Amino acid sequence: MSRTVSVALLLLLLLCLAIGITARAAGQTATSAVKISDSIFMAPGGGNVYMITTPKGNVIIDTAAAAQAPNAKKILDAVSHGAVKYILLTHGHADHIGGIPLWKEPGTQIIAQRNYVEFRNYVDRLEGFFSPRNAAGFNRPPQPVGPWPGNYGANIEATVLFDEKYEFTLGGTKFELFSTPGETPDHLTVWIPAYKTAFIGDNYDGAGIPEPKSFPAIYTLRGTRPRPALDWIKSIDTVLALKPEVVLSGHGDPIFGNQEITRRLTRFRDAIQYVHDEVVKGMNSGKDVYTLMQEIKLPASFNLTESFANVSWSVRGIYDGYAGWFDTNPASLYPVPPSSVYPDLVRLAGGPDPVVQLALEKLKDGKPVEALHLTDVVLAYDQKNMAALGARLKALNYLEEKCENFIEEGWLQYGITKTKEKLGSAN
Ligand SMILES: [Zn+2]
Fold first, then answer.
1. Residues having C-beta closer than 5 Å to ion ligand 1
2. What global pTM score does this model have?
3. What pLDDT sits at residue 28?
4. Are the C-beta atoms of 174 and 184 separated by less than 8 Å?
């Protein structure tokens, strides 16, 4: 479905998220705030911003990406000019913290869960690693990376950090903040008991894909520490135990009504639990990660898509998160990869041609990944081999045509671009 409108739109949304512009900002910038209740307003966008008004000043929950933040500020300013007493950060992703400088006033308290500090340091510590991967996953040129800030060099805007729970009252409205790790270790949920409203960041919504939602990314291809599935499950239970009537998330539309909230969040939680437990069962029975990636499928009864995150990537994320890199093969103990002997295999085959031929046959048999592996073998022998590059391009195009996941599509496009570049320079 590579060229369908829906995938193109989803790709645009993710591309926009990645470069800090929302789909709305790119095509349909919101011109007014959405009134959730008399005191809660939402600036919708690639990263939703919420304002809660009280007689003693306002509370802002999340601030969007830097490029989108001015519009969110403008449309919420039209609702209220009350002093910003608190900024609450559901987590430290760039599409939630970019607008902090716009909202911060003298005396504004900025509250985050304590893991925010390490999460932000982690992102900045490895910016040189993440930046090109972020660009590659969206098949766009890499952004320049600044000088290394050091291991603990992130700018931490939070003035208040808490471990499990924090609460305050402003203008008669009580706010309760709970640690709810999930998409990130620093995720928090804001609960306003008087309005029975929970702000849950990205723990349900992912990238704002409409219902039915996609299975979440327990691992992201751009690179991340494994997201502990059991913590995520527990955090959804924490939200459900509050019995909210309104759930507001970092992306996408509000969910109203406890029955509907319970239905959606329970389904999402149980899907994570199912995949997690299948991985654990498989690990305990001695199955390797590739076997589990092939075997574990999400039952259709969950009614979740894999448009944002493939279950098999999460299977591997959970497996590797528990076990690390060693696969029990003694050959893996040493810094000599399998590819070190690829050129020898090509020589053994009598040169590149029979191996390329085999790759093309695999492709004809509907085995594009095997075809890709075989082109890797030839390209280790001769990185400019035209026939191997051509076969590789065919295999990538084959996969891209069948792809229904737009993150996967981004990486396939990246591979196609790189292969075409090599074909061009080999000419
Ligand atoms: Zn987000």
1. 93, 95, 202, 250
2. 0.90
3. 64
4. no
